[in-house]
């Protein structure tokens, strides 16, 4: 299975997403815990969550799921609201997230998207949290290439360890500038929603891609996931069942050929110019 480096840690090149987890009844939550554990038992270590997801419900569910596991073997990522981006508020958010997760530190803490608090102030607060040992690293989410470059020029900006953005076949704009830039500076890029999302934002799949998946003896989701993880991006996938988790893991063994990639490109062309960063 494909592996990658994330701030010094070697991990399988796939992360467990948690958006919308923990928001159902006890039966659904039990299935979601089982799904997370199926991923961990198979060797996944990266779990991505946020205080926004169910207003803490996802973090609580993750805390339940990881309780029996060796914390030092996991890589936990969470994110805080832009309106919690002052030093005092982000510490309060972090402490609440840690309590819900049942841990005393995060491996990576991200500003969820740009906000009104001056970024220099936010970076200073994150640096203090790192110095205090409450987080191992900090980064950003939903920052495009120009905004990320500006952030890195600020005090504490060189310590920005990762950036998390939307990436799937319908949202390829980051291939024009952000992916090459982060690869050049050696900054990990986490890609969320490789299958699109709900609320009318599902990806429309053509007959040619369905035929491609059939010819490879894979599901369309496995093809899309293999595509999203084919380069330096680490895809983050949310699943509520152990069976789907196993299917996602199967994509780590898939390498798409140039001919297969061309079929996807014909349906979802690569960007030829700078486009606004997309988000969900």
UniProtKB/TrEMBL annotation:
<dbReference type="InterPro" id="IPR023210">
    <property type="entry name" value="NADP_OxRdtase_dom"/>
</dbReference>
<dbReference type="InterPro" id="IPR036812">
    <property type="entry name" value="NAD(P)_OxRdtase_dom_sf"/>
</dbReference>
<protein>
    <submittedName>
        <fullName>2,5-diketo-D-gluconate reductase</fullName>
    </submittedName>
</protein>
<dbReference type="GO" id="GO:0016491">
    <property type="term" value="F:oxidoreductase activity"/>
</dbReference>
<feature type="domain" description="NADP-dependent oxidoreductase">
    <location>
        <begin position="14"/>
        <end position="266"/>
    </location>
</feature>
<dbReference type="Pfam" id="PF00248">
    <property type="entry name" value="Aldo_ket_red"/>
</dbReference>
<dbReference type="InterPro" id="IPR020471">
    <property type="entry name" value="AKR"/>
</dbReference>
């Amino acid at each position: 299975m494909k592996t990658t480096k994330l701030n010094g840690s070697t991990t399988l090149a796939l992360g467990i997403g948690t958006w919308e987890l923990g928001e159902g009844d006890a039966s659904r939550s039990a299935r979601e815990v089982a799904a997370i554990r199926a991923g961990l038992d198979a060797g996944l270590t990266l779990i991505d969550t946020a205080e926004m997801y169910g207003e803490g419900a996802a973090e609580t569910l993750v805390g339940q799921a990881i309780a029996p596991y060796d914390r030092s073997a996991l890589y936990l990522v969470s994110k805080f609201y832009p309106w919690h981006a002052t030093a005092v508020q982000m510490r309060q958010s972090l402490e609440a997230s840690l309590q819900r997760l049942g841990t005393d530190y995060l491996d990576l803490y991200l500003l969820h998207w740009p906000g009104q608090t001056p970024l220099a102030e936010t970076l200073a607060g994150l640096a203090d949290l790192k110095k205090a040992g409450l987080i191992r690293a900090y980064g950003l989410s939903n920052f495009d290439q120009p905004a990320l470059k500006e952030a890195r020029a600020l005090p504490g900006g060189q310590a920005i360890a990762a950036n998390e953005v939307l990436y799937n076949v319908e949202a390829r704009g980051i291939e024009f500038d952000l992916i090459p830039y982060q690869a050049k500076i050696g900054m990990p890029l986490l890609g969320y929603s490789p299958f699109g999302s709900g609320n009318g934002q599902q990806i429309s799949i053509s007959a040619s891609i369905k035929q491609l998946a059939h010819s490879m003896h894979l599901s369309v989701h496995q093809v899309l996931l293999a595509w999203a993880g084919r380069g330096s991006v680490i895809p983050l996938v949310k699943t509520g069942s152990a069976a789907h988790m196993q299917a996602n893991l199967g994509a780590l063994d898939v390498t798409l050929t140039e001919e297969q990639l061309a079929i996807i490109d014909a349906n979802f062309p690569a960007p030829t110019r700078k486009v606004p960063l997309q988000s969900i």
